[in-house]
Structure formats: structure tokens, C-alpha cells
Amino acid sequence: MKRTTITPVGALHPILFFAVVYVVTLFFSIFICSTIFYSCNTSANASVAKEKKTKSIEIPGSTVASLK
């Protein structure tokens, strides 16, 4: 009769698989969340800075006046 032996790596295969899936998911979630965070902050700061730089108002029937 042959005895079958189970190698330690084979026995840990499900645990290693889910550990790798967890690490990949963690990496992508950090990447996605940081991208969303920076895009929200950049657009808000850029629009405020642009608004502070030049404000223009439109007067009906005349040219555009610029306020500083």
C-alpha cells in the first residue's frame, strides 16, 4: 500500500490563496481611494484658486468687467 503525503504548501494552498487575494484587494482599494481623494481635493482647490485669481462679471448690454 502506498501512503500519500501532503506537503505543507499543498495544505496551506487555500490560506495562501486568500492571503494573496486580500493583499491585491487592499492594494487596489488604497489606490482607488487615494485617486478619488486627490481628484476631489485638486478640483476643489483649483477652482477656488482660479476664482480668486480673476473674477469677472457680465453686465447686460456692455463688455465684461474684471474685478481684482
Structural class assignment: mainly alpha
Number of strands: 2
Distance between the termini: 93 Å
Shape estimate: rod-shaped
Largest sheet: 2 strands, antiparallel
* Total domain modules: 1
Hey, roughly how much beta strand do the residues contain?
A: 5-15%
Helix content: 55-70%
Which tags fit this structure?
rod-shaped, two-stranded antiparallel sheet, single chain, 12% strand, 2 helices, mainly alpha, 68 residues, 2 strands
Task: Annotate the secondary structure layout.
Elements lengths: L7 H4 L1 H41 L1 E4 L5 E4 L1
Antiparallel strand pairs: 1-2
Structure description:
Strand 1 and strand 2 form a beta hairpin. The chain has a two-stranded antiparallel ribbon. With 68 residues, it is mostly helical. The protein has helices spanning 8-11, 13-53; strands spanning 55-58, 64-67. It has one domain. It has two helices and two strands.
Brief summary:
Helix content is 66%, strand content 12%. It has 68 residues and is mostly helical.
